[in-house]
Amino acid sequence: MAIQVRQLQPGNDLLLSDFLERRADSSMFIRANLRHSGLADTGKPYSGTYVAAFSGAAIEAVAALFWSGTVILQAPFYLGPILNHLTGLDVRPIKTLLGPLSQTDEARRLLGLRNAPTKKTSREDLFALGLERLVMPEHLAAGTWVSRRPKPNELRTLVDWRIASVIETNSASDDEEQTRRDADEVIRRLDRESAIWVLEVDGRVVSMNSFNAVMPEMVQVGGVFTPPDLRGFGFARACVAGSLAAARHRGVERAVLFTPKDNAAAQTAYRAIGFRLVGDYGIVVFG
Who contacts 246 (Cβ-Cβ below 8 Å, separation ≥6)? Predict the structure, then answer.
């Protein structure tokens, strides 16, 4: 059967949701954005333009260009035709590529961006955890460390940590003021959405993490940060574990995250609370 490539429109939501749900571990950004904003591209946060390849009535692959200039891929087949159609719509410039690693590699080639300057190119391992298998760190289980939502007067510290994190991962804007505005917007949005957590030890906030994509049954962990002078004590894994325990309490069943293939410390921390390798992921930030 011939493949048809076309832009998705409001009304195709359930069809796309069914396709993405079968690839849930590597589709959380698209799934969460779709749930937030549907298929209409309003230019507002979470909205985007979606293009899919169809075999008959069934979606076989999809790519979306979101409000932020990020292209997110779930296109194991027909990536070339999808990207040709998507870029032909001339919606907005592409600033970032996200998706399964082989797809982001191929997308760079197809888009002619293999040699384009980048701020960040990261090859990551994708981990998943059924929350019934979550392992609670000893201090957290004993209650001597506390995982909780941040207090309003702590948000400024979290903004500073967010800035330090994007600088450390080579994701910051060249404009320092823009980096601060972006960090402030992200932290305050995550706080409004009850999607950011901190770890308190001896009355001091020592680590943070967030859920950067949320579905009723599943969350994606991101934004994990511990200041350099506080690393090596198990704070990050405890912060993540505490946030996942709270998510499990409200009915979430599964969590995913990705971390650089060469970050042995982070991988050890996540494995210690139950995460297991299930795939890979690619991140390319142009600039």
Answer: 147, 197
User: Which neighbouring-strand residues pair with 63?
Assistant: 51, 73
In the chain the first and final C-alpha atoms are separated, in Å, by 40
pTM to 2 decimal places = 0.94
Domain ranges of the chain: 3-116, 127-280
Ranges of H-type helices in the chain: 13-21, 28-37, 79-88, 101-110, 138-142, 155-168, 176-192, 235-249, 264-272
CATH number of 3-116: 3.40.630
Phi and psi torsions of 206, nearest 5°: -120, -10
The per-residue pLDDT for range 33-76, each reduced to its tens digit, is: 999 999 999 999 999 999 999 999 999 999 999 999 999 999 99
Indicate the residue type of 6: R
Q: Please give the average per-residue pLDDT across 184-210, as a whole number.
A: 97
Nearest to 101 by CA among 278, 253, 276, 221: 278
3-state secondary structure of 275: coil
Look up the CATH superfamily of 127-280.
Gcn5-related N-acetyltransferase (GNAT) (3.40.630.30)
